């Protein structure tokens, strides 16, 4: 007797299937899309309406070119944290183990999750950018810069998701996510997206200027201005590459250990 042949799909197809599973879950529990899309959009509108005129009076600019990138990146980060809340339950409930025993590529569950994070962040970034343009954001350079502009938050969210997954796979409760949420809020409200660096207290300026979000926001701001220079882009790439190199192996090992019940 010959063993039945199992038809294997490509990693890309299997990743899309796992991403579709997350999309279906998010439709039933829309808290994550709300965090990723509604929260940054409301933050952008509220800040622009309440503080925009005062910002123009004090600095001569409404800071929309920094505020829109900040809201787009924040939406991706908060969405990643919200999505990771399900990982400990999936591990303790045996779902990760069942994924591990399926006749699919071992990496497809992880890549599918990252694909879903990328798609959700892309939608959120497009919405936030469209609202920003309606509020007065202008692209002074070529409109082709809009493509990398909306892709920057996607890259940030995917790499941040790797970081969050690496921690969530080893977490036993929600305390970690409260810490991550508090840290993310701190990065958002202590960034050049809220106000120019010169408006922060002197003791806080070094942190605001050199924290990870600062170079990302500056890269997007220069893209919208049509004056991109290598320095902020290289700094942002350095931060992201460091996180990816450190936490991707941890996420892979953590997923393998969780799936095998170790």
Give a brief outline of the structure.
This protein has helices at residues 11-28, 31-59, 64-84, 87-92, 95-101, 108-135, 146-168, 175-189, 205-210, 212-225, 230-259. The protein is mainly α and 262 residues long. The longest helix has 30 residues, at 230-259.
Helix-strand category:
mainly alpha
- Beta strand count: 0
What would the principal axes of the Cα set say about the shape?
A: elongated
Q: How much helical structure, as a percent, in the residues?
A: over 70%
The domain count comes to 1
Radius of gyration: 20 Å
Order of helices and strands: HHHHHHHHHHH
Low-confidence stretches: 1-7
Please give the alpha-carbon distance between the first and last residues.
Answer: 36 Å
Main sheet makeup: none
Number of helices: 11
Mean pLDDT: 83
Strand percentage lies at: under 5%
